[in-house]
Design a protein that fits this description.
The structure is a homodimer.
Chain A: E1 11-14, H1 23-33, H2 40-49, H3 51-59, H4 68-82, H5 90-97, H6 109-117, E2 121-126, H7 130-140, E3 146-149, H8 150-153, H9 160-169, E4 177-181, H10 184-191, E5 196-200, E6 222-224, H11 227-233
Parallel strand pairs in A: 1-2, 1-4, 2-3, 4-5, 5-6
Chain lengths: 237, 237
Amino acid sequence: MSASTFEDVTSLTFDVFGTVVDWRAGIIRDGEGMGLDLDWHAFALEWRALYQPAMERVRSGEIGWRKLDDLHQMNLEELLARRGITGLSEDDINYLNSVWHRLDPWPDVLAGLARLKQKYVLATLSNGNTGLLVNMAKRAGLPWDAVLGAETAGAYKPQPQAYLRTAEMLGLAPESCMMVAAHNGDLAAAAALGFKTALVLRPGEYGPGQTTDLKPEAEWDVVAESFLDLAEQLGCP
Amino acid sequence: MSASTFEDVTSLTFDVFGTVVDWRAGIIRDGEGMGLDLDWHAFALEWRALYQPAMERVRSGEIGWRKLDDLHQMNLEELLARRGITGLSEDDINYLNSVWHRLDPWPDVLAGLARLKQKYVLATLSNGNTGLLVNMAKRAGLPWDAVLGAETAGAYKPQPQAYLRTAEMLGLAPESCMMVAAHNGDLAAAAALGFKTALVLRPGEYGPGQTTDLKPEAEWDVVAESFLDLAEQLGCP
């Protein structure tokens, strides 16, 4: 795929959880550090499984707008109750819930973003709230030019407004933005609105048993194995 | 003033036009480059003088929300008509209006922000729209952790919502934010909401004849002569 195909693209908009950072490893790391005797891999997957249903309650209007930190907290409390885990202090729960602010990027991310940043405006287009994403970026050294997404749009992906408002705030047409994500569904929603698309495969996002998003499910503009591969394909030396 | 006074402050929120960048010099530079025979210093001041009245039309509800790029354009067209300047193409006008995206920082800014960024989350709290501020930062190398302000809040300073929404999106109480501005009025509005305050004097913002904001008009938490002085006073080596 020639980089010249994308000469109108001036901004890359990034999904974050799974695409940029490894949420599963971060939850396992901080969970184990708390000294609780748990299967933290399983806990991480269960917590993450409550993510889409919680956002769906907001999307459907069943509950009013809540930022992702608050949805994570609601889900965490449900999960702790379901597993009969008691005895955690409020500070413990707040610490555990803020693990999403302390996730590490995949090994290729920082070097890839440094190359991509020379040519493109790099923006988040994430369901994470702004404060979460800013804290994560500060800790991990993610060099975003803009932190945008659900909270600024007041809408959770894959609702169109999340994508459209992000492009609008960058002052760009959707066609000038390329959505970068590890998830086919995210790219499908973006492509339907005019975004260019790049799939970066993260076959370890859910651990060894992952069955989804192992390959492209449509003709995305770019399919890359890492952010370095993406930089290469977009002509960013 | 001891840095320990501000141990609860985790983010610095910056006014941009005048405080971070020299809008007058930028307009003169690009205006003169267009080959139009004009007093560009006077033109810059006249254009800027239309800024507050235009925002006031939005604040008062006389007109609906418009981002600053659009208010700048409305003001520019009014100014060109008033001065009887005709013959500019649409491209010329768009180029001139986008000068606000191409402003250079004051000489102390990049070195000062690099020091401050080691300790604080650096966010804009500007009336500039997001795309304008992102383009400016990209060109000038301003290392913002978050680009926030009027457009994300849907309110122009000094309306409280502009400040409060910025703090909220950072996940912070106003008391954990320090407003940095060259304008006493901006600091007064922020302080009334609980923000800490730092006045950075920019006696050349309006050129040699400047009569306003030459000194502190209240007991701000910090008064600094430059961003380097601010870094020094906040204990950022």
